[in-house]
Specification:
Layout: E1 39-45, H1 52-69, E2 74-80, H2 85-97, E3 102-104, H3 109-122, E4 126-128, E5 140-142, H4 147-160, E6 165-171, H5 174-189, E7 193-200, H6 207-215, E8 223-225, H7 230-242, E9 251-254, E10 273-276, H8 283-293, H9 301-315, H10 325-328, E11 334-336, E12 339-343, E13 349-351, E14 354-357, E15 364-367
Parallel strand pairs: 1-2, 1-3, 3-4, 4-5, 6-7, 6-8, 8-9, 9-10
Antiparallel strand pairs: 10-14, 11-12, 12-13, 14-15
Length: 378
Amino acid sequence: MAPPPRPQAPPVAAVPPPPPPPTPAPVAVQPPLQPGAKVPVALLLPLSGPSGALGQGMLDAALMAVYDVGADQVRLMPRDTGGGPQRAADAAKAAIADGARLIIGPLLAADVEAVKPIARAAGVPVLAFSTTASLAGDGTYLLSFQPRQEIARIVGYAHAKGVNRFAILAPRTPYGALATAAMQDAVTANQAQLTVTGDYGTNANGMTDAARDFARQGVNYDALLLPDGGTRLKTLAPALAYYHVDPDKVHYLGTGLWDDPSLGTEATLVHGWYAAPDPHGRASFDRRFRDAEGHAPPRLATLAYDAAALAAVLAKNPTGADFSTAALTSPSGFVGLDGVFRLNRDGLIERGLAVLAVERDGPRVLDPAPQSFVPPTQ
């Protein structure tokens, strides 16, 4: 009997080639500017909705800066981001399509997050106003007040004045959590002690209970950081004093949220220390804004002014507007209404901050802000 046929091995199958990589979405290549043409700069702000008044005040300040510094160099293109991240993204796309070489704004963290990848894909840098540090980088720079730097400054100053035991009572918010982490880092950096920590909800009705519960932990510290502002701070501070956290024995400390002349009306905050830009630098701007608009500028208006002025200065480059990383992150920095500042390559801002005291007739400078990032010549 014939042997059964030997089974044949299956033919070797050719491995199909990998699919081609997806074609990236085309990035608009902006044509070069015509000689003598103004540089288009987008300004993304909430001009409607709950933050509309703030956005309008910042727009007015930016327009003032362009008039002061670069009316012949910059064409400011305002776009409304009121309505949320999608509207901010659409505003960024429209501005880039209209030739924007730089984007100033947005203001809110969610809007910055929506705009960042759009600007990065087009190679357009962003000068945003959010304090959320994680949004910095990849062409996005945060031209904002950073609480971490403010806390490092005020803790360092207090420690130099003999304070070694610190405490913090912070709102139960992202800002409060950031402040608590920054406080721990600052105390460690100064080889001091953080002896008591606490937090509280943002309902003003619970401030008294929060103060009582915090005070029950004991007052075994020499300085207390209260990283809050406005009505909550004015409610919390006297409640703490009522429960024997005596401001005559404990230094009350604050962040830039204390940069508010009205705090002098609250007796328990008078003589408290905080870190912020020197207010004398913006005094002339405040007067001019009042004369032009009929009301005081919002505190963040100086950020918009400085951003627009920075754009105008860089647009004056003899060989054409230079918004490159090297130009934006010049080690010597820039001088604005809020003092000297520079942008780092990680997208975060570094500011020269003063230490101020709350007084009844307005803040008083205790330790001046540096005027330069260059060490003084010996």
